[in-house]
Amino acid sequence: MADEPDSHKPGGDTEPPQQEPPSPPRVPWTLYLIWIAAILLTTQFLVNTGQHGVQRQSISYTEFKDKVRSDSVSSVTLQGQRILGTYRRADSQVQGQVETAGSKPEATHFTTTRPPVDDPALMPLLEDHGVEIRAQPQGDDTWSRLMIGLIPWILILGLLWYAGRRVQERAGGFGGGGAFGFGKSTAKRFRRGETHVTFDDVAGLANAKRDLQEIAGYLKNPDHYRKLGAKIPKGILLMGPPGTGKTLLAKALAGESDVPFFSISGSEFIEMFVGVGASRVRDMFASAKKEAPSIIFIDEIDSVGRARGTGLGGGHDEREQTLNQILGEMDGFDPHEAVVVVAATNRPDVLDAALMRPGRFDRKIALDLPDKNARLAILKIHSREVPQAGDVDLQRLAALTVGFSGADLENLINEAALLAGREDKSEVDMGCMLEARDKVVLGSEREMVIGDQEKKIVAYHESGHALVASVLPHADPLDKATIIPRGRSLGATEQIPEEEHHNLQPSYLRDRIGVMLGGRAAEKVVFSEVSSGAEEDLKQVTRLARHMVTHWGMSEKIGPVAFRRGEEHIFLGREMAQQRDFSEHTAQTIDEEITALVSGIEKEVIALLEKRREQLDALAAALLEKETLEAAEIQRIIQRPDERGKASPAQKPDRHS
Question: Does the pTM exceed 0.85?
Fold first, then answer.
């Protein structure tokens, strides 16, 4: 590249390359193993021959008995089924007289093998012809047994040595500890300057970056803060939903601070041997202290930092041993020791109280899902290397991705690039972006054949959603409706809120329930019965109505009281424990209020659709014809004759499917 500095400088400016110190010679363990195997094999061969340099002629058992009958055999040695013999000298001398010049001398020893069937005539035959008989125990093969016992151990030790070397090389000399270094830390170490991620690569999260900027400033210039009497926080806990950039923020902190960075997952501390995790914690903290100032990043710390006390009197399992060691290391830091522990989790509710107290994790930073402006900045960062067509509108794409995390947005851009490549395009256009968004939200299109009647039911179902969303005054505005099967759904109706809601009012919630019931209500109006397609709608409706009655005090009969059936996780969005702290009578009253709320809204929606039956039919016919309708097309179809010519309501780009 033109802007890269040339590594070859002309003339006298060329600096001689720095010679690296020679690495110590590597021990040729493989060669040693080959030598040992060769020595053992040679020794075995020499022992099996019986005499050094003796050539034995291999003959058949029939030929052996013929030799005995002709008095050509002097002696035999019986070794199990094997027979080692010696010819008589007279016989060998006679044989030697017929040898021609230059030919090999005849063998004086022979070997044969007895058949597995017992031969009772052998011993009398040998005795009758004066053959000397010797016997040796069967299996008297010491070296063979020795080799059979040694070779597996040699292979096991060789594999352990090789695995230890590989682990040590991957860890860059830190972590692995050779073949038997189970207690060594497996943390990945990034040296000063190796981490090139900075806060400029992190879009949004302004408050989180501001808190971490102080840590980076302290690590860069600790004396300035010490003069002011400030102490560096020992621990920083990053909390947030999956995909919000916790790991990226930790890398950016290391890049901004320009200090060594040790990264490890909490699950890597846990091994089958008790005490290994604690040993790895000690080793990792010792290495970080040697290179202070430095940063230790523990991802998914909830895997080892869960609350203790699952058994009476505490516990002594591997996880608790590891947690105890982490607590001891963080509490034992020197006040002036510039080592910062950064941990990430999406389950802060399960962490041990001793881990969360000040003095260990002094600062807790909550990361939220990005808002519209942050999503726009994230899209710009991830699309920097993507060639874009002129019609790409990242502002609109940011508005269409409510509830997306940073990881979801990165995946969206990548899916759009893959789609453009599949269609052999030179640039990524807005069509690819919208198709990628639908794929991320709803899933890929399903290749399935739907009958005409079933397709008609789906069309009326989605038309009911779309019509109710367009008519109700507090509903989120429509984006599009489709009857193309995607993922697990046969169709979808999407709503895009103009602004993100953080404080929900009853009027908005009632209209939201009404939109979700619109599909089922349309089936009732048109077909006088309902199908199973509203299963997911009813789940969402029941959950939302229960929250209105039991959590938010929006029921006149229940009043301003909160009745929790389970603790909902703040980041994962689902109930983690099913517990109830109210009576059976109250539970019955709650169920009645939920049923009354949902049934009342459904009656209102049915009445609305019956009044606008003509528009419902027109919308369903258009969906059957085009399969997908955008918001503007839907508005033109459902607009009444007396309303035509008036400005259509402004589109407020929540999704409903």
Answer: no
